[in-house]
Structures
1.
Amino acid sequence: MNTTAIKEISFEELLLTREDVIPLLGGKSDYAFLMHEYLDTLFEQGKQIFQIMGGYQVFDKLTFNLEMREIAIGEVNFEVKKVVFNMLKRSSKIAVFVCTAGDKIHELSRQYMAEGDMLKGYVYDLYGSLVVESAMDLVQQSLRLEMEGEGLEITNRYSPGYCGWTVDQQKKLFSLLNQNFSFVTLSDSCLMKPIKSVSGIIGIGHNVKYNDYTCHICDSTNCLYKNLKKHS
Amino acid sequence: MNELLEKLSLAVESGKINKMSPYPPAMKGLDGADELCQQALEAGIKPDVILNDALIPGMGRIGKKFSDGKAFVPEMLIAAKAMSAALKHIKPFFTSGEVKRKGVFVIGTVMGDLHDIGKNLVAMMIEGSGWEVVDLGVDVKPEKFLEAINQHPDCVIGLSALLTTTMVNMEVIVKQIRAHYPDNKILVGGAPLSHDFCKKIGATFYSADPQGAVEFLERSVA
């Protein structure tokens, strides 16, 4: 049976502080005070700015084609690279997830950029990414707790666009989700709307594992945390 | 160099936008790029001299620091804002024809990709170096590039992508541009790219950072 869990996440639940953000922005004390002003506004208005929603749908009808490195969830076939295939191939279930921070943060970011305040736009953009990733951490934690109840482990999350998994596979991913996930939609180019959204899959099973450090297998060039590592 | 131009150049490099702006702390209360550019014009310094001797070198120095890993994105963005504050005084001279644009630069983030901060920064720096910039935005399909080239036949084209999975779309766009406009220069940029990839897809030049893009364009009109 395919189980579904969707929840609204309040901005306060994320427990974000300046210290979570400043290092991601380079963190140099000379200009940090400028960011403090922007971030304080974001913390104050976060409740109004963010409409955070996330969830997952769990599928248990899976087929793994070792030779072709293909994963079929139900009738939908995904071509993934070796790195993703190897992490998921022992899964007995797969959760397809979606999470969004809402439209407004991106709109504000681009509004400030259009007005010539590139720095403020950049801070808002980065903060939007941090919010959606942090919210997805909570969604993933919910999945972990649910699966622990069944004696199962979960893997890290993997998304189209990363680890060689092409963005066009996003359409297939969204075709699996029921109508309760319509809070995120796809464009013709397979881009998510709201823009500050994430989607992907998480493996579940007795013989899967979560790796604390996966930067070495990821080819992301715009990851928040990779940038932090590079500049720390 | 003229003292006023030196100060203006430093204001751009340091991100000192105007007198009111609090950054950088060491320049608090001093005139910024906005006031200094106005003063330079009032002192009779020609706008093209201001552009070439103050704005471009100032932005060039912070661009070099960024390339060398000695400055971060926020510093580049503050400097770009300072340059824009100065540029608004120069723009009327572009319109009147007193200062000639170096050319037209058409830029866009390729289809399938929405990342635009790097693209915007490149666009701002190139505009600041005296080019007319036509920004096509994000998720840009080949037809939109072709339409822009049709309108600006001698333009240089800039393609941006941030994902390994969307940079492949550059090849599709470059092929279509080459099929219709074989002689236009195509600049590509974005974190996952390389010189080899640029060569493979038939683009003209790859730049790892905004300053490299500015320098490429400078060379292309030299």
2.
Amino acid sequence: MQSLTAAAAAIELRGIDKSFGAVHAVRGVSLAIPRGSITGIVGENGAGKSTLMSILYGLYRADAGQILIDDRPVDMASPRDAIAHGIGMVHQHFMLVDTFTVLENLMLGAEGGPLLAGGFAAARAELARLGREYGLSVDPDARVADLSVGEQQRVEILKVLFRGARMLILDEPSAVLTPQETDRLFEILKSLRARGVTVVLITHKLREIMAVADRVIVMRQGAVVAERLTVETSTGELAELMVGRKIRLDLDKAPAERGQTMLAARGLSLVDRRGVRLLDGIDLELRAGEIVGIAGVSGNGQTELLQVLSGIRPPTAGQVEVCGRVIDPARPIDPAEMRALGLAHVPEDRLRQGLVAAFEASETSILGYQDQPPYCRNHLLDAPAVGRHCADLMQRFDVRPQTPGLRSSHFSGGNQQKLILAREMSRIPKVLLVGQPTRGVDIGAIEFIHRELVKSRDAGCAILVVSVELEEILSLADRILVMSGGRIIGEVAADQADERALGRMMADA
Amino acid sequence: MEETLTFITLTLAATLRVATPLVLCAMGGLFSEKSGIIDVGLEGKMLMAAFFAAATASLTGSAWAGVVAAIVAAEALALLHGFACITHRGNQVVSGIALNILAAGLTVVLGTAWFARGGQTPPLGDGERLKPIFFPVAGDNVLVYVALLSVPFTWWLIARTRFGLRLRAVGEMPLAVDAAGVSVAWLRYRAVLLCGLFSGLAGAYLSIAQNAGFSRDMTAGQGFIALAAIIFGKWRPFPAFGACLVFGLLDAVAIRLQGVKVPGVGEVPVQLIQALPYLLTLFLLAGFIGNAVAPKAAGVPYEKEH
């Protein structure tokens, strides 16, 4: 341990402690991050890594503990202090003003005077210099809303460097990037390190840590449980440290036994009111007993495809046939009717479409089925029956805490997702549509959710999984369709697919 | 010919007179809305300001004291709005409506108690009013010029200064402003205070420049018309100014058209003409502005996530 921290520390934390109400988010964390290194911080969701970095960046105040920058204790009361001490943060959700140009975003908070004119010229020159030095080129006059996600992230990094940061914290930087963009990001990080910048990378993607970081710190339940040099560890060991037990990253499952076609889409198109073509001639077939995965960079029509297939939006052309019923522009359908046909849907956006945050878990557990027995009799809800149903689901799907009366919003993301999956799967649907099954879900729950999906498939359910996580698609799906620009641009059998090839297909178009 | 020219000149002068409070109010509201604080309380601020302007001018005999009192009164309401919406993250529309009701009631109560004229203030003499500077017929008092200058000033402040950049950012993405180490609350308070300043001037114009005294509900919805002008102008100063002029013109034409027989239609009822600006507002709001371009964070209280 001593040898790991021997190099001069750029950042040192001593005994940092933080609670939010009853939740003890960070428990007495001490760590040191050497200057000019790339350090990864890994941990499950809720392990406290983001909270810890928010404390370092002055967004939260620690209840106890000390922060040292370049061996001097400092007081981080606000991001302004952090910036003044040379710390910059690239957040998972970009802190960019969409309607501003790159230059305006760059200057926000560092305008260089009460009038903008002079600052603009200086910022333009500085941007050109940073672009040359770090290979970070972005058009300064482009509107941020028009940039790709990868470019927006570059703007975030430029923003931090523009403020003279020597220490850079990145929170889940690859969550929204294609594999190629991620590689590009890692090259940038390495060139930053070569120029003496200290980089801290928060992630739960172990493979990326192994690829780019020098050292890795593992957090679990608010505490640091291990520190390793990446050359001396493996993804297996790190995963085990993160969850505190051995887990399998690979799902082993029997080959699919494909039955009859349960859902078929032909020439499915969707054009919105502004005339933008969101779906463009989608042909798709889903058979009983198989999992079809849809891979793609988010925003390429996956969301709309799920909306149309689940009956939320009618198609503008083409048709869908579900369990014998044909849906086309002339014969639309609503989600309740879809459910009655035996189609269940786990929406991508669980907080907006999967549950009502203010409802109790028991109410969430019957959402969409609230008018059916045994929950509803004579137009009245049977609360005890609903409670029993919820308790039963919670037990079968290991939802914690097992409290049907608790508000849905008080469950962690993983447990909310398990509850929604339980609700949809418990009706034994013929077709199951799942959007982002494990977004914001920790590793333990991911494993559980994946196993349940495969179990359901083996029982004969036809499953369509949409995910931006390639790893997930690769381990779950029997067939993989790649979406881009509202079209399906390719199909690959899962056993012949690899991340690189898929990534190239996703990025093409 | 001569007659037509006179008609046009007089109508244009009237347009400017009627549009002045709208322009001032709209520029004030623009600052607030740009910062992400919706202000349906423009009406109440203007009404309160109008009352205190007239009351103070009447008691002190000074028009300028009236202007100062108007600004103070409007700022008090602006701060209340800020306290409710920024500090306590209350619902901005509810707070705005509450301010309107408060102003409508308080001005009448205080007016009745102080002057015993059924809510009116005593008529103001010439020395207690802001008088025309160059053209007595046109009514070009100092606030008309302030209103005209307020438009390029607002544009300049929003487009060309550090404050403006941050103001625009805080209305779109307050998180980005916070992450840049700039206080979201202080920025929004400054915006709300600017709004108070301009709506105060608008109120003063009504009671001590355009008219000679305060009468109950004298704003008569002009705060809402200003709000509509902001929306027509898509939250940009010059287009909003243009919208104010259109409303002013409609109003001026309405006054001119009273009692005039329109060929083929006959005499147009006064009420219909007076309703024109409001009908136009509804009409345009319903379908002619196109996609909403409101600041994205407008109406959303800023809270740090936990």
